C-alpha cells in the first residue's frame, strides 16, 4: 500500500492512458496492432525529448535546446548512415550519442561558467544547434540503415510468447523501455543520480554536504544530450531520413514533464510519469484526428492543453518557492 501511495500519480496516469486507448478503440473499432505501432513510433521521439528534459529539470534547470540537439543528432545519423548497412551502422550510432553528450555538456559548462540562468543560455544554444543541423544537412535527406529501421518498426516477435500478445507490443515501445531502463535505473541509485536530486532540491545545501554542484549540473546536461541524441536517432529511423528543422518537441516536453509529476523547482520526480504523459498527449491527439476534428482546431486544442499544463506547473513552482 505504501508503494501505491508513493506512486499514486504515476498509477493515475497509467489508468488515464488505458482509458484513452479504450476510447480510441470505441471511436475506431479497427484500432489494433498497427494503430499501436503507429502511435508508438510517433511518440518515440517525444518520449526521448521528455526524458532528456526530465533529467535537467530534476537537477533544477531547464533545457530549451533539446529539439535542436535532436535535429543535430538526426541529420548526423542520416548523413553518416547513407549507403551503410550491417554492423558499420553501430559506430555511427555510438558517434551520434557521443555528439549528443558533448552538446549537452557544452550547455552545462556554459551555464556553470557564465552563471547565467539556464533558460537564457539554452535559448541561445537552441539557435546554435539549429544552425549546426542546417550546416550538416540544409534540407531533408540522407538515409537510415534498414536493419536499424526494422528495430523500431512493427510489432514485437518473440517465439516464447503467444503471437496474440506480442502483436500488441510495438517494437518502438520495447526499444524505449530498454534504453531508458539501462540509463535511468543505474543512474537513479548511483552517487551521481543522488547528487542530481540533491542539487535540484537545494543547491546550497548540496554544496555544504560536499556535492560538486557544477560537475553534477554539467553531467545532468550531458545525460540529457545523450537522451536527445536517442530522440534524433529514433526520428531518423522512423522517417528514413534526416530533418534539420527542429520538430515540435520543446513545449510538449515541458508539458509532459509537468503532467508526469516532475516539479519544475527540481529535486522531485522520475521518468516513468513523464513518458506516460507523452503517450497520453499523443493518444489524445490521435482521438481528435479519428473524430475528424479540423486539423487547425486540433492544433489549437493541443496547444491550449500544453500551455495550460505548463502554466499550472509554473504556478506550482512559484507556490513551492514561497513555501
Report a brief summary of the structure.
75% of the residues lie in helices and 0% in strands. The protein is mainly α.
Describe this structure in words.
The chain is an all-alpha fold and 323 residues long. 75% of the residues lie in helices and 0% in strands. It has a domain at 31-250 and 262-267. The longest helix has 28 residues, at 295-322. The chain crosses the membrane at residues 42-75, 87-113, 168-187, 218-239, 245-264, 271-291, 297-318. This is Autoinducer 2 import system permease protein LsrD.
List keywords for this structure.
323 residues; mainly alpha; 15 helices; 75% helix; globular
Question: Any chance you could write out the topology, listing elements then pairs?
Answer:
Blueprint: H1 2-6, H2 8-27, H3 33-58, H4 66-81, H5 89-114, H6 118-136, H7 146-150, H8 163-166, H9 171-189, H10 191-201, H11 203-208, H12 213-239, H13 250-259, H14 272-290, H15 295-322
Helix pairs in contact: 2-14, 3-9, 3-12, 3-13, 3-14, 4-5, 4-6, 4-12, 5-6, 5-12, 9-10, 10-12, 13-14, 13-15
Transmembrane segments: 42-75, 87-113, 168-187, 218-239, 245-264, 271-291, 297-318
Main location: membrane
Pfam family, one: BPD_transp_2
Amino acid at each position: 500500500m505504501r508503494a501505491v501511495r508513493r506512486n499514486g500519480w504515476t498509477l493515475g496516469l497509467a489508468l488515464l492512458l488505458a482509458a484513452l486507448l479504450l476510447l480510441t478503440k470505441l471511436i475506431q473499432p479497427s484500432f489494433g496492432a498497427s494503430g499501436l505501432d503507429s502511435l508508438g513510433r510517433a511518440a518515440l521521439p517525444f518520449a526521448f525529448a521528455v526524458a532528456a528534459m526530465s533529467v535537467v529539470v530534476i537537477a533544477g534547470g531547464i533545457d530549451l535546446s533539446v529539439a535542436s540537439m535532436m535535429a543535430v543528432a538526426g541529420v548526423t545519423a542520416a548523413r553518416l548512415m547513407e549507403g551503410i548497412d550491417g554492423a558499420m551502422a553501430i559506430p555511427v550510432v555510438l558517434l551520434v550519442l557521443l555528439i549528443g553528450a558533448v552538446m549537452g555538456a557544452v550547455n552545462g559548462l556554459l551555464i556553470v561558467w557564465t552563471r547565467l540562468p539556464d533558460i537564457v543560455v539554452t535559448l541561445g544554444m537552441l539557435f546554435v544547434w539549429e544552425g549546426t543541423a542546417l550546416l550538416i544537412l540544409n534540407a531533408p535527406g540522407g538515409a537510415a540503415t534498414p536493419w536499424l529501421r526494422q528495430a523500431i518498426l512493427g510489432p514485437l516477435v518473440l517465439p516464447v510468447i503467444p503471437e496474440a500478445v506480442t502483436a500488441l507490443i510495438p517494437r518502438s515501445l520495447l526499444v524505449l523501455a530498454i534504453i531508458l531502463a539501462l540509463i535511468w535505473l543505474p543512474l537513479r541509485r548511483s552517487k551521481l543520480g543522488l547528487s542530481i536530486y540533491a542539487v535540484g532540491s537545494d543547491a546550497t545545501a548540496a554544496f555544504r554536504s560536499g556535492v560538486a554542484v557544477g560537475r553534477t549540473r554539467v553531467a545532468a546536461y550531458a545525460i540529457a544530450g545523450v537522451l536527445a541524441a536517442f530522440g534524433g536517432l529514433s526520428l531518423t529511423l522512423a522517417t528514413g531520413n534526416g530533418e534539420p528543422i527542429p520538430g515540435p518537441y520543446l513545449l510538449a516536453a515541458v508539458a509532459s514533464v509537468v503532467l508526469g509529476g516532475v516539479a519544475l523547482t527540481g529535486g522531485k520526480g522520475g521518468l516513468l510519469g513523464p513518458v506516460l504523459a507523452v503517450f497520453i498527449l499523443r493518444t489524445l491527439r490521435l482521438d481528435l484526428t479519428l473524430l475528424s476534428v479540423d486539423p487547425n482546431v486540433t492544433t489549437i486544442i493541443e496547444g491550449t492543453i500544453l500551455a495550460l499544463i505548463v502554466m499550472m506547473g509554473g504556478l506550482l513552482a512559484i507556490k513551492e518557492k514561497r513555501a
